[in-house]
UniProtKB/TrEMBL annotation:
Residues 16-165 form the N-acetyltransferase domain. Keywords: Acyltransferase, Transferase. This is Acetyltransferase (GNAT) domain-containing protein. InterPro entries: Acyl_CoA_acyltransferase (IPR016181), Bact_Acetyltransf (IPR050832), GNAT_dom (IPR000182). GO terms for molecular function: acyltransferase activity, transferring groups other than amino-acyl groups. It comes from the Bacteria. The lineage of its organism: Bacteria, Pseudomonadati, Pseudomonadota, Alphaproteobacteria, Hyphomicrobiales. Gene3D superfamilies: 3.40.630.30.
Length: 167
C-alpha cells in the first residue's frame, strides 16, 4: 500500500508530514531507528544482539505497511503495521527521532495509526513495546495484556493491546 501525503501539521514552525515509506527512505529510516533505540542508553552489546530485528531493508519494507514522519524533507519518525487477519494487526515499528521525543511527534504518528485502523476497519492493534515506551502507549490508550521473552535471556517486553473506541 502506498498512500498519498495523508497528514501535515506545523510544529514549532516546522512542517511535519506523514507519508508512505519508499526504498529511498531506508538509510534515513535506519538512522532514526538506531538513534531512537540508543537514546534509552542500551549497551552496544545489546544493540548488536537486536540489530537484525531493528534494521529495515527493501524486503521488510515491502512486507508491511510503512510510513515515515518527515520534517523538512528528512525522516524524523518511522512506523509500520503488519495485518494479521481481518480483526487485528501489530505495530511492528514505532520510532521517533530523539530530538522530537516529548514534542508531539509520537502522538501525531499514533493518531495517524488510529485513523488508519478505522479506515481499514481493524478494531485492535497489538504492540510489543520497549519497556521505555510503555508509558507512552498507555497514555495513548493501550493496555498491558501480557509479556514476551526478549534478549538478553530473562528480559521481557510488555505486550499491549490498543482497541478503537466502540469496539
Amino acid at each position: 500500500m502506498r498512500d498519498e501525503d495523508l497528514s501535515c501539521i506545523v510544529r514549532g514552525g516546522k512542517p511535519l508530514n506523514i507519508i508512505a515509506a519508499i526504498p529511498q527512505h531506508l538509510s534515513q529510516m535506519n538512522e532514526v531507528i538506531l538513534s531512537a533505540k540508543r537514546h534509552w542508553g542500551y549497551s552496544e552489546e545489546m544493540m548488536s544482539a537486536w540489530l537484525p530485528d531493528l534494521l529495515v531493508d527493501e524486503d521488510v519494507l515491502a512486507s508491511r505497511h510503512f510510513w515515515v514522519l518527515e520534517e523538512k524533507g528528512s525522516v524524523a519518525g518511522v512506523f509500520s503495521i503488519s495485518v494479521e487477519d481481518d480483526q487485528s494487526c501489530e505495530l511492528e515499528d514505532f520510532w521517533v527521532s530523539p530530538r522530537l521525543m516529548g514534542r508531539g511527534a509520537g502522538r501525531l504518528m499514533f493518531v495517524f495509526i488510529q485513523n488508519w485502523l478505522r479506515e481499514q476497519q481493524l478494531p485492535e492493534l497489538t504492540i510489543v513495546s520497549d519497556p521505555n515506551a510503555k508509558g507512552f502507549y498507555e497514555h495513548m490508550g493501550a493496555e498491558v495484556v501480557g509479556t514476551k521473552p526478549s534478549l538478553p535471556v530473562g528480559r521481557t517486553l510488555p505486550v499491549m493491546r490498543f482497541t478503537l473506541e466502540g469496539h
